[in-house]
Write a structure and sequence with these properties.
single chain; 354 residues; alpha+beta; five-stranded mixed sheet; two-stranded antiparallel sheet; 11 strands; disordered N terminus
């Protein structure tokens, strides 16, 4: 009986492995900044935000300062101390930088191309406690397994709710116009008792109270999240996704050696040894005269994974020409690659802009 159960489990594991476990390759793709106009506004200053009880201006400045792409710093951040000095010399108030013409004037004096200003419109946080009834079984009936004796007790539950909302503007110093405006809001809600329950199968167990953020911690975390979300829109960035490989050559006249070489190529891809995988697939492509869409496609995936989108497109088109009926993986690749090339080229234009 034990052996039959063991064999059954092995069969189930093999079935699970063979269905839905197709080999995939992680692709890295360059995307342009959402706020494309910032490509030519790389000297940036951040003014003190109005009603800034959460330090959002400093957080945005810090996020911008550390933005790097391919190990190169993307922005030059001008010091708020220099801005404060100019404001003092011009006998201005920090709140006056909410006016575009004033921001433009100050920006020109400190050598900025863009000034980021704004206002914290809300920053609220509340913490509280409440009592919750609990029970624990102390003794069970041996015959039925039901609880024979309970202990009833109370626990103190802690809660924190917080919200932060910020209006953010980017001013073009040269023209005094607004390049981009956004309102970003974030919320936090936590309950130590609800968070402390762990579900395992059909059983719910009390794992004890869980640490939650204090009011100050929650507000600080939300402000940091807002700064990160905003700055992310200003720079080109990399996105990652998975692409499924084709694992069988569809041709009828495949020799044993060729089959083994194809399997070797897949193994090297799994090990991220794209150089070795490429040599195997290019050899097979020559031997099949480019007539195997699986070989052409998998080779295209390697070129896509190594950043040569143009070569990948060439191979995907070739693979598509070899199919008699649509192949889902190839359809996805054909529909995907043009967009990746377009976005890559736009991102590179942004990066190269002065």
């Amino acid at each position: 009986m034990k052996n039959s159960i063991k064999i059954g489990l092995l069969v189930l594991a093999a079935t699970m492995f063979s269905t839905g476990c197709a080999q995939k390759v992680r692709i890295k793709a360059l995307q342009p900044a959402e706020v494309g106009e910032m490509a030519v506004k790389k000297k940036v200053a951040v003014s003190n935000f109005k009603n800034d009880s959460v330090g959002i201006s400093g957080k945005i400045e810090s996020e911008i300062a550390k933005q790097q792409l391919d190990k190169e710093r993307y922005f030059t951040v001008l010091s708020r101390k220099d801005m404060a000095k100019v404001i003092a010399e011009q006998k201005l108030q920090s709140s006056e930088l909410m006016d575009e013409s004033t921001s433009s004037k100050v920006g020109k004096l400190i050598g900025a191309q863009a000034i980021i200003n704004g206002e914290v419109t809300s920053a609220n946080a509340e913490s509280g406690t409440y009592q919750e009834d609990r029970e624990k079984c102390l003794k069970y009936y041996k015959d039925s397994g039901e609880c024979a004796q309970y202990r009833y007790y109370k626990v103190t539950c802690k809660t924190t709710q917080a919200s932060v909302a910020v209006n953010i503007n980017i001013v073009n110093v040269e023209t005094g116009s607004i390049i981009y405006g956004d309102t970003i809001s974030k919320n936090y809600s936590a309950d130590s008792c609800k968070a402390g329950q762990t579900t395992l199968g059909l059983l719910t167990m009390d794992s004890g109270p869980k640490q939650i953020l204090s009011k100050g911690q929650a507000l600080n975390s939300l402000a940091s999240s807002i700064a990160q979300e905003f700055v992310y829109k200003l720079t080109p960035n990399y996105v990652y996704f998975n692409v499924t490989l084709l694992e069988d050559i569809e041709l009828d006249n495949v020799g044993n050696k060729q089959g083994m070489e194809f399997e070797a190529a897949l193994a090297f891809i799994k090990a991220a040894r794209y150089d070795r995988a490429k040599s195997y697939l290019e050899k097979l492509m020559r031997e099949f005269d480019g007539k195997s869409y699986a070989v052409d496609y998998d080779l295209g995936v390697i070129y896509e994974a190594t950043g040569d989108f143009d070569k990948a497109k060439e191979l995907y088109v070739l693979a598509d020409k070899q199919t008699v009926q649509p192949v889902e993986e190839i359809n996805l690749a054909i529909n995907r690659i043009d967009g990746l090339i377009e976005k890559r080229d736009e991102a590179k234009r942004q990066m190269q802009a002065k």
